[in-house]
Amino acid sequence: MSLTNFRTLGRSGLVVSPLALGTMTFGPGEWNADDATSRAIFDAYRDAGGNFVDTADIYAGGGSETLVGRFIAESKVRDEIVLATKFAFNGSASPLTAPQAGGGNPNAGGAGAKNIHRALDASLRRLRTDYIDLYWMHIWDGVTPIEEIVQTLGDLVRAGKIRYYGLSDMPAWLAMKAATIASERRVPGPIAMQLEYSLVARDVESEHFPAAREGGMGIMPWSPLAGGFLSGKYRRNDTGDTGRLSGANPFGDSKFVDRNWDILDVVKAIASELDRPVAQVALAWTLVRTGVTSTLVGARTVSQLESNIAATDIDLSVDQMRRLDDASAPALGFSSGLSAPFIRRMVFGGHDVVGWGE
Ligand SMILES: NC(=O)c1ccc[n+]([C@@H]2O[C@H](COP(=O)([O-])OP(=O)(O)OC[C@H]3O[C@@H](n4cnc5c(N)ncnc54)[C@H](OP(=O)(O)O)[C@@H]3O)[C@@H](O)[C@H]2O)c1
């Protein structure tokens, strides 16, 4: 596999690379790359044949979009890039610090029509373009009716300001309802889900993966290295200096728990069998998971990105995949239990019937 093993994203005609360039590390920030390094990362991704670039209005307070817009304009590659950005976090507050009570504009965040139009216009300006290829709802705000979200985003597709849209960080039922409403009302529907997914974060397999398949949505994992944890660079007995994963962090719960260290041990063993970096094995596993279309890679340096891209040429054996699957298997929830092999056989007279897209 390489970055030019293009595929369509969900049930759409949008053609993307198997690895997308995440640009959360672009722009000012404690764990970010400086401008020159960000440019070099962008160029290295393009040189490797990648066409899919992901940013968000909130990354570095708009700084990431500004740099991505500049790099695309300077390289004159707007037509070749599938440009994705996101709305929903509040434009009047930093997402990475606890917001102060009051003071902000409540309509400068969320998925209401007023904010979507505000956010899109600001992103288009920073990105120096008049359309977005893939517009993401970054996170569901928990209150805006799904009908309004689908109508607003579908109208933007029809107006040509965005080509497609996707849903990130939302309950599976919401994505399914959005897809259903869209098709019933003949409004353009979501084509992709962006979710935290890695060897140490597989809980989305039970509800989100089947919903994506049923709703015609491709899955884009974020934090496939669990923010760097799955690179193997941290030590179980010394988690004192762990960069962006230190202490309370905005990327969720601590990655430094016994279960994750045990999973990492299996990844390390396979990396050593293959004589490849640990991070590449973790990425190679993500790349071939059924339902995953394009995996978001984050990098703070060019060498990290180049090494991560090299994961595309790893072929994990059946035995290696099984060991990784077994070590990281999520607890079977009620829904995934319903299609467990034992139940299938009970239903289908002892046969292991395989469903569409499984
Ligand atoms: N939709 C959402 O809510 C959401 C949330 C998060 C991210 N995202 C998107 O997903 C992209 C990727 O997410 P992520 O940054 O969390 O991905 P990740 O791959 O899990 O973590 C990337 C970080 O790991 C470290 N790293 C990367 N490659 C490495 C290597 N080969 N060896 C050692 N360390 C390495 C770097 O941090 P250090 O060098 O500082 O350790 C890098 O910044 C983001 O850029 C963004 O576009 C979306």
TrEMBL record:
<dbReference type="InterPro" id="IPR050523">
    <property type="entry name" value="AKR_Detox_Biosynth"/>
</dbReference>
<dbReference type="Pfam" id="PF00248">
    <property type="entry name" value="Aldo_ket_red"/>
</dbReference>
<protein>
    <submittedName>
        <fullName>Aldo/keto reductase</fullName>
    </submittedName>
</protein>
<keyword id="KW-0560">Oxidoreductase</keyword>
<dbReference type="GO" id="GO:0005829">
    <property type="term" value="C:cytosol"/>
</dbReference>
<feature type="domain" description="NADP-dependent oxidoreductase">
    <location>
        <begin position="18"/>
        <end position="327"/>
    </location>
</feature>
<dbReference type="GO" id="GO:0016491">
    <property type="term" value="F:oxidoreductase activity"/>
</dbReference>
<dbReference type="InterPro" id="IPR023210">
    <property type="entry name" value="NADP_OxRdtase_dom"/>
</dbReference>
<dbReference type="InterPro" id="IPR036812">
    <property type="entry name" value="NAD(P)_OxRdtase_dom_sf"/>
</dbReference>
